[in-house]
Amino acid sequence: MSEAFRRYGVEITNPQWTSSVVSENPPQVIVSLWSHNFSPDMTRYVTPTAQWKGAGKPLFYKHLRLAMDEGLPLRVVVATSSDPEEVRKGNAQRAKDFEPDLSLVGRVVRLEDEEFELAFERTGETPDTVVAERARSGVKYWHVAEAVEALGRPVRTSEIAEWLATHYPKEDHSDLGANLAFLTVNDANRRHYDRSRKIWRSDGDHPRDRLFRVGKQRATTYQVFRPSAHGHWDLQPNADGVWEAVPLPSSALGRAQAEAEDQAFEHLPPLDSDHDARVWSLTAIAQRQGQGAFRAKLLEAYGQRCAITGCNATSVLEAAHILPFRGEHTHRVDNGLLLRSDIHTLFDLGLLWITPTHVVAIAPSLRGTEYEAMEGQVLRLPVSREHWPNPVHLADQARLALEKLGTT
């Protein structure tokens, strides 16, 4: 509970019986509220208080009165219980989980001796103290990812904290929950900690898509995110405006990518010397550039220039198959494109494709990057029409890319 309040930049005293704090900068009241007393869309909170016990009630009412009289906004730590009926009987010790909902901002609608009503809107921002702490912490969240990877199995928060305390004893990891959310693809709270990010799909090769969570509340465990096992995820608002983590539909291209990522480093040859390492690295480059005769034909057909960028540095020009390689019969020039290495990667990932009318299209995740300028660009075509890319093959590749994006 204390950690949840710290995410608002405040310390709660006597958390055994208090559940509210007044913040001076910014001026607001932070309260802990039961999830089962919210309306389904979390815009209303009504609860009777006749059964409340202990010294916390007068202080809680004092803080609500202050918010009402001075027009202070309410911010929320959501408490979850596995037995709401016991809570309604006055047993507040049934709380199992405390999580700040940083998007909720509320006001007091009604404050009576034995009942109160609050109203909320989803207009909140992450507190400046949290943002400032993240800026100071720098690479701390990478140490969290390192801990999960090193432990090598599904682990609880307490196990991660113990590993961090051993390996990074000088670091303050009181914000471990925030850093876990920051890196976890199926945690809707991550959007509060990464203000610069607008697209939350996990199939865009984002470096912070590192972890996956299983379970709820104190039974939650974290593990390394593996698309082949966990699928891909996105964050989206539901019909009530509440953001949720939702699984993305499976696609042929997405499944192939996930399987390839799993297998990429499973069968490495023994690298017993610098020479072995260089051979392995250059072999990978040669494989990526494409089979010699096929690449030579494409270099000739496209005048030794990338079909999209016009780049003429032949060392980075690669032979890209439009339809996947399935033998010599797919080594036709009209089933290939000569692409700069980075464009080839985007093409194979389904983040960039060519329409049957030879126009470049890009995925939404590339907008705002240097590749956005390529959208709508017309392909540089070979002089010989028989070498032009087959429109049927281009249409099939475009279909796979759009299927992966979930737009078909």
TrEMBL record:
Domain HNH nuclease: 306-354
Pfam families named among the record's database cross-references: DUF7669, HNH_2
Keyword Cytoplasm: no
Highest taxon listed in the record's lineage: Bacteria
Keywords: Endonuclease, Hydrolase, Nuclease
Domain DUF7669: 144-197
Gene Ontology molecular function terms on file: endonuclease activity
Span of the signal peptide: none
Designated name of the protein: HNH endonuclease
Record organism: Pseudoxanthomonas daejeonensis
